[in-house]
Write a structure and sequence with these properties.
Length: 491
Amino acid sequence: MTVIGVDIGTSSSKGVLVDEGGTVLVTAVRPHTVERPHPGHVEMDARVWWDEFASITRELLKSAPNDTAVTTVGVSGMGPCVALTDGTDTPLRPAILYGVDTRATEQIARLDDELGRDAVLRRCGSLLSTQAVGPKIAWLAEHEPDVVARARRLHMPSSYLVVRLTGTYVLDHHSASQTVPLYDSVAQEWYEPWTRHIAPWLELPRLLWPGDIAGQVTAEAADATGLPAGIPVVAGTIDAWSEALSVGAQHTGDLMLMYGSTMFLINTLSERLLVPQLWSTVGALPGTRSLAGGMATSGMITDWLRELFGTPEHTELLTGAEASGPGARGLLMLPYFAGERTPVADPHARGVIAGLTVEHTRGDLYRAALEATAFGVRHNVEAMSAAGADIRRVVAVGGGTRGGLWTRIVSSVTGLEQEIRTVTLGASYGAAFLAASAVGGPLIDEWNPVRERVDPDPQLRSEYDELYALYLRLYPATRNIAHELAARQRG
């Protein structure tokens, strides 16, 4: 048994070819950029998702050992997204991305009034926010009625790949639970009264679980991708939940930290827990629930700094950040460079770098960015714990786990030990695991055992506690100014 997993992420698409023992045989990556046509608008053409998927699968198959026979395909992708298509699944405009796109604030307020803020929380598990799908569809109805007049279907990256591969229009339960307020998280089915209120034209996709087989690769898709016709394709899910599965963070009490372009946190629960400033969703596996949080930026900031610095090697920047030391020589950063998702829920928040002098170096700035993300993680973890979340184990995953400094800072700031698995590729590996599970049922602990554990440094706890207290004060102290500046940026 050999499986392929492909993930469509914010900054790249990644694919893996994995054998029955979990060994990664071949990888392939396609970097890409999102479109930002206006302040607060973040989009991507869904046709790029399919083109990159087809290119990746052909590369994986070309580089595979001669006796390789792919048996199943798994997919995942960023989300929740709003990719509107006509009835033949042809995209009508670029997809609106997840909570980093903050355009629909007026629609959030209007739908809160029309549906009832508390009613949405009780039925859907999460409040309307920049992460929610419903307000973005409402924005399109108001601003692009010609598009909506032709729209019939709603896709996210995983479901769009599935329909192109199999011709089957489906969406997994977890992704659906992030289409607030279209999905009833209690009944675990579409809530038609609110769907009709927001999108009466929408043909609702059939709901499956992420590991369910959605269909088989068609002859047309086989020609485009090089995959064998007739092999099964699983429904897949949103990338962060696929990341959690890739490292075994799927049991009650597990907390996954995803180090990527954004930082994402998922705590697996056995029962639903409603927290207004976080997201309560259906889990990736049947019978599970999730309490999730997400920062709007993390790796995006370090990438931005690297570009400003002339694109030196990441190792060079990490060396400078290590030399800077705890506290970045008196710098403190708010990482709200694209607004902030949880627990602040402020799309008009902005990044702040406090304490700058002409003596500070790029190493200090890079260190301040890593520490800002760590403070944001602690803010989310404390919100989860205050709401009653049971955090027993922390598992880290993603590109940011390489190099060691970032994970060490997060552990020291939060006081939490982190477990790092052998394979930290993330969502594409999780998609491959779902594909393998659909036809054979491997155990992720056998596929991907623990490689190391990152412990907090007790000597840094006092200093980081003091800096974290300043971090919590910095946002309310600068919020009004940030909002006025954000208004100027919106024109």
